[in-house]
Amino acid sequence: MPAATPGTPSLLRAMNDRAALELLLTHGPLSRTRIGHLTGLSKPTASQLLARLEAVGLVVATGTDGGRPGPSAQLYAINPRAAYVGGLDVTPERVLAAVADITGTVVATHEVPYTEGAQAVDQVTRALGEAVKAAGLHRSDLRRVVIGTPGAFDPQTGRLRYASHLPGWHSPTLLEDLAAALPMPVEYENDVNLAAVAEQRLGAARGHEDFVLLWNEEGLGAALVLGGRLHRGWTGGAGEVGFLPVPGRPLVRQVTRANSGGYQELAGVEGLPRLAADLGVEPAPVPGAADGPATPAASGAPHGPEVAAAVALLARAAAAPEGANLHFLQSYATALATGLASVVAVLDPEIVVLSGAAISAGGEPLRALLEAELAELAPSRPRLVPGEVREHAVLHGALESALAATRDEVFDTSG
Questions:
Q1: Is there a domain that residue 115 lies in?
Q2: How high is the pLDDT of residue 292?
Q3: Residue 149 main-chain phi, psi, to 5 deg
Q4: 87 and 68, same structural domain?
Q5: Is residue 107 within 8 Å of 101, Cβ to Cβ?
Q6: What's the rounded Cα separation, in Å, for the pair 299 and 288?
Q7: Tens-digit pLDDT profile for residues 74-130
Q8: Displacement of CA 20 from its chain's centroid (Å)
Q9: Average pLDDT rounded to a whole number, residues 246-254
Q10: Who's near 34: CB < 8 A, 6+ residues apart?
Q11: Domain closes at, from 28, 54, 78
Q12: 396, 389 in Cβ contact below 8 A?
């Protein structure tokens, strides 16, 4: 079929179809009259549009708007079965997979704990396969999968960089092996970038074109969104702020431990128990650790022991921000501001979104202290806002990324 040209009826119909589908995504079920009002289309044209979309399986009738004065009107909604996507969040502790329908509703999840010597392909296919099975689907039903990992796959070499702490993910043929094992298009993205996608589409960064997301969990990182688009850099390493040189800490090249040195050593979670002890803050009990240390896989904990300890310390300090607790929060805010000031000085973002379990645990006391400290160190003064996607931000970002591309394909009725 020849491609539609600008101004042709087929192109105009496709544009109206997409506008109506976006309205249904945003507002939920709508009547023909309401769709006509929101799009500016006449009632006959809106009726033809809905009939066309219903015929191709993109919308379904869902009932009526009973309860209002006058005759009941038929309501229409996006057909959730029109397409499905998958997302995965990979950490050194586990692989978490989810399946979502075209509306963005998560229909199933499955988690595979990391086991020593496990192969990345096996973990991915197992986690995704179980999630698909729980959704009552087949893997071939997924239109696209997005996988979030620490670090980034170098677009020139295909090798994972900046993530030496992720075991089993550094084979030179990994991307080829995953492509052979999965029957759908697969995309890969840095985990912190996906957290930014989640905040941009679902959370604190909605409506903002230029922002930085600062993340602190197993690693310290940032995502950079400029002009509404992720900035990844030449090798995918934009935002790897853990490597930033900072005063009083060794350069990353001078140490052998992964993710140690520089900004990571100054403000990463591994140093927080020591900082707290130096300031006279008592160790905080870690949930699930009463019977002694346990691996995250065995305990079902969402994070490793270093993150869990940092979260416990910060949450308790934020609950009573006075005395030694206040000094602890202030010192941590100074550490975070020291590296963040360099990012802000270069990019001058509108807002900085604070995300990740460790920063989130500090709550409003930490946010206010960090904003005040940053104002002393950086020439610009961006607003610091807490992330709103608290649970599984990386996974939600992976699903949103997969949905954006899939909707562009599925909602295109021009052909």
A1: yes
A2: 45
A3: -135, 160
A4: no
A5: yes
A6: 7
A7: 999 999 999 999 999 999 889 999 999 999 999 999 999 988 777 899 999 999 999
A8: 27
A9: 75
A10: none
A11: 78
A12: yes
Q: Which residues constitute the domain of residue 86?
A: 82-194+395-410
* For residues 179-188, average pLDDT: 95
CATH number at residue 155: 3.30.420.40
Same domain, 297 and 364: yes
Task: Please tell me whether residues 70 and 122 are part of one structural domain.
Answer: no
Q: Does 247 or 256 have the greater pLDDT score?
A: 247
Do 220 and 359 have their domain in common?
yes
> How many residues in total does the chain contain?
415
Is the separation of the CB atoms in 85 and 99 below 8 Å? yes
Indicate whether 21 belongs to any domain: yes
Q: What CATH number corresponds to the domain at position 72?
A: 1.10.10.10
Give 190's strand partners: 149
Q: Provide φ and ψ at 130, rounded to 5°.
A: -70, -35
Instruction: Answer yes or no: is 126 within a domain.
Output: yes
The residues, any chain, with a CB within 8 Å of residue 255's CB and separated by 6 or more, are 261, 265
CB 173: neighbour CB atoms within 10 A? 11
358 compared with 285, residue with greater pLDDT = 358
Could you tell me if 329 and 318 are in contact, meaning their C-beta atoms sit under 8 angstroms apart? yes
Give me the number of domains the chain comprises: 3
Tell me the mean pLDDT in the region 354-382.
95
| 201 found inside a domain | no
86: phi then psi, degrees, rounded to nearest 5: -125, 150
Q: Are residues 71 and 110 in the same domain?
A: no
Residue 278: Cβ within 10 Å count: 11
